[in-house]
Structure formats: structure tokens, C-alpha cells
Amino acid sequence: QVQLVESGGGLVQTGGSLRLSCAASGRTFGNYVMGWFRQVPGKERDFVACISRSGGSTYHADSVKGRFIISRDNAKNTLYLQMNSLKPEDTAVYYCAASPALAIATTLRGERDYQHWGQGTQVTVSS
Fold first, then answer.
1. Of the candidates 37, 38, 3, 9, which has an alpha carbon nearest to the alpha carbon of residue 23?
2. Whole-angstrom distance, CA of residue 101 vs CA of residue 87
3. Mind spelling out the 3-state secondary structure of 22-57?
């Protein structure tokens, strides 16, 4: 199976930017559809974005569309989430996830679609 480790979280002011990274090891990274989710205490884990195996197709949740960009570098076994124009409501623990499913990548928006998860990285946006 694939192991995932997120990094890049931190404290940023409203309007600022952060780039999250997710380093993958183990199985071939390019075999997996990848996604980002986020979770605040007491709430369910919410879908943020997903990307196809090649990186050619992406889908972003409406709440982050136009501000966040998901990308991947299969040569580096790394997934990214560029977050711009951050808002206090973006504060959460962000998780990367991998799915071996053969479905169309941009349809994989549910927590149950993903089998492998990282430990999460905290993003805090101050007002």
C-alpha cells in the first residue's frame, strides 16, 4: 500500500497563501487518484479537491474553487495543494488521501472513495 505524509501547514493571516505537500511512498504513486480533505473538530471530513492519475483532470469543491489548486508531480511522488486568498473558515486539519478506484477521478469526492490517508497537517487562518 501507499504511505502518505502531509507537510506545509501553519498559521497565516486572512488573505495569505500556503502550499501543502503530500509525499507518497510504497506503491506506485501514479496508480492512485489523489484527493485533499479537511476537518474541523466535531465535524465530518469535507472534500476539498481531487486529481486524476496523470494530473490532467481536477475537481475542486465550490468553497475553494478559484482560490485553491490541486496538482501532482508523479516523478517526485508528491501531491500539492496551493491555497490562496485564505479565509478564517479554511481553518482545519488537511488530509491527503489515495484511491486505487478505477472510476472517473473527478467523481471520487467522498471519504469512502479513498483507502489510504495521511496523518494530517493543521492550517490556521487568523482574522
1. 3
2. 32
3. EEEEECCHHHCEEEEEEECCCCCCEEEEEECCCCCC
Query: What confidence tens digit (pLDDT) does each residue in 79-99 have?
Result: 999 999 999 999 999 999 999
Q: pLDDT tens, 90-125?
A: 999 999 999 998 888 889 999 999 999 999 999 999
β-pair partners for 21 = 7, 80
Q: Coil, strand or helix: which one is 114?
A: coil
Contacts with 24 (C-beta within 8 Å, 6 or more apart), sequence order:
2, 3, 4, 32, 77, 78, 79, 98
CA nearest neighbour of 121 among 100, 91, 98, 101: 91
Distance in angstroms (rounded) separating the CA atoms of residues 69 and 84: 9
DSSP state of 105: G
* Helix ranges, the chain (H): none
